[in-house]
Amino acid sequence: MAENMTTTLNSTSFTTPPSPLNTTVITSNATVKPFSVFDGCDLQVEGILFDLTVQIFNVIVGLPANILVIAILIHNRKEPSTSDIFLGCLAFMDAYFGTMVPFSFLNLYYWHSKEVWSAIKFSYGVKDTSGPLFLSCICLDRFVAVLFPVAFSQLKDTKYRAGLSVLVLCLTFAYASAKTVGGLPNFEKVFTGEVLATFTWMIVCNLSILWALKKSRGAGKDEMHPMKKKAFKMVLFILCIIICNYLPPVVLFPFEDYYPPDAFRCYVQPVGFAFINISSSIQPLIYLSRLEQVPFLPDACIQRCRTCCKAEKNKIPPAQNPPA
User: Fold this and answer.
1) Number of domain units in the chain
2) What band does 223 get if pLDDT is binned at 50, 70 and 90?
């Protein structure tokens, strides 16, 4: 009796056709989109590689420059300027973004890890939001200082800028988290609206500052005050950098609906973001160029450079030597 039951069970187990289960599994697998580190641009990788190639400059130049800016701000913390907290946050975010570039290359060609790709997408979200928003905060600080000096003197307390920085960080991490999760409808238009608003604000602020500095010469004065002239040149230089970094995405991204979806995602977006991403190197270099003396460099090295420059400047060519 037991043998007959065992035979029946074995016969039943062998005669059960597994094909419907396998067919269902194959069908479900066919509907699942396979993971790709190129985010759907496996056959159109030129734009992504262009962006990553540009970012190599951020690793070689931008990362050390941002670390140096952070060190200088910490060194000068006893005599800070009003924008130092914004500059420090911006330099920290740019340095973090620069450290993720090697992981991007490694994940594209070796790891192919979904978790690493999520971390890279988070860093892209941080860069997308922190750069424009903190630059807007710096422009706001300068705008109030030049055009409304009385109100600026009443708002010099650090708590106002710290609170604004916390708000910007919250917006940054919220945007970066949403970008990492993905799948949100029309999510690209959030960044398009953000970059349009911040770009317009920065242009208006800097043009207003330039107009106010130009107007402040006073009646009958042809020359601007040296400090105001220096500020005028710096704001003008920053305005040019803002236009170079943010004008391409401002011009390209609003016309997303006019591009084929694959062309926009694989070509237009990476090229537009490349102009924004290179700002991680340009911004700290602008700050360092404003300093009369860079800390942490030996005084002997600085003095030697000054001596060499002075000797080269005062050097008389042999043809101009007076006859003996």
Assistant:
1) 1
2) low
